[in-house]
Amino acid sequence: xxxxxxxxxxxGAAGLMCAIEAGQRGRSVLVIEKSNKPxxxxxxxxxxxxxxxxxxxxxxxxxxxxxxxxxxALSRYTQWDFISLVDKHALGWTExxxxxxxxxxxxxxxxxxxxxxxxxxxxxxxxxxxxxxxTHDEQYSVRTNLADYxxxxxxxxxxxxxxxxxxxxxxxxRIAKQFGLKTHNFVAALVPFTFPEDQLENLxxxxxxxxxxxxxxxxxxSFKEAILFTHRGLSGPAALQISSYWTLGxxxxxxxLPNDNALDWLNAQRDESPNAELxxxxxxxxxxxxxxKLCELFIINKPMKQYTPGELEAVxxxxxxxxxxxxxxxxxxxxxxxxxxxxCDELSSKTMECKSVKGLYFIGESIDVxxxxxxxxxxxxxxxxxxxxxFV
Length: 392
Ligand code: FDA
Hints:
Elements lengths: L2 E7 L3 H12 L4 E4 L7 H5 L6 E4 L7 E3 L4 H8 L2 H10 L4 E3 L4 E4 L4 H13 L3 E3 L4 E6 L3 E5 L3 E9 L14 H8 L4 E7 L3 E2 L2 H11 L3 E8 L2 E9 L3 E3 L1 H7 L8 E4 L6 H11 L5 H6 L4 H10 L11 H12 L1 E3 L3 E2 L7 E6 L17 E3 L6 E3 L4 H14 L3
Parallel strand pairs: 1-2, 1-10, 2-7, 10-20
Antiparallel strand pairs: 3-6, 4-21, 5-6, 8-9, 9-10, 11-19, 12-15, 12-18, 13-14, 13-16, 14-15, 16-17
């Protein structure tokens, strides 16, 4: 009885969604999961409350070698579809910010919801089951530490390698290569920046715990959200977002006055409060510790009336275009996702089946589609899993 219509490798967000859909269509489905629990990344997501989707999901919120690829799946299984599923299971949810929906119950409630649906769809899940080899002739044979299984279709839903201590690996890329498919190496994304020791010492450690709303940019890409100084470097949503667009050697630009033109703001302060010191005025709009640090390192602090127009322009440049040069990121150890994976052009965007290998499917983070921070990655997992589930 080890023969199934479909074997799904990976009981994460995408794999479970695919299993539910295929099971509901009456297919016999086995989900193989190498860890001792399904949905481990769901459990730790969103600070324990799973940011399960985003109200403003759209293709432009994803990075990929093929920016069109995600459009079809995202339009066929939308954020509203997943919200309906959550509502059907009477789970509460709250929009925290920027369309990000979090579960009112713990993240475990989302895993329970998916497992309940799997059970209703007669999906079989094998835990602690490690795939040793996949071969394909007439059908697929999957050798594992527990037993050998065979199927007509195999779905690779093994995600990306971020957080290796949870057992995450680049399995998807290895399997893709085995089948001669084009891949992109996984690269840590949505990940904090690190800086050289002298900058950590003089800047970041002293400001550790300070959060500021900024516009953070690299090249032509900008995010208006908070940054957080930490003893290891720079984190916070804006830093995580921009990390997906950053490559080694790039400078990042911080605009500390995201709602004002810095020079206009400085001129207005000089007119309104000519005797006040810049540091005092800055402390009213950015964290006091940061204002002091900027004045210690980059700006001569004095009463506003003493600044020449040229000096104010130089201060405006520091406030609106403060350049920082990370020397790396924290890497896969803390990355929320990974860029890269199977090249999208290897797949049908309708079915998620490989164009050149019949019956082999890839879904979720294993494909080179990576969302912004804010529920977009789960929405991609649900959508791509749902699509494959209609065909396997
Ligand atoms: P996922 O990683 O979920 O599942 C893959 C499964 O395959 C795992 O269960 C793994 O054990 C299993 N597996 C791997 N190799 C295997 C093998 N060889 N054999 C058998 N099984 C194997 N996103 C979001 O939208 N909102 C959020 O709030 C968060 N928060 C968040 C926090 C943290 C700390 C992290 C690390 C990540 C997030 N994410 C997120 C990202 C999100 O978790 C991620 O994009 C999805 O889980 C990807 O879903 P997949 O199903 O593709 O992979």
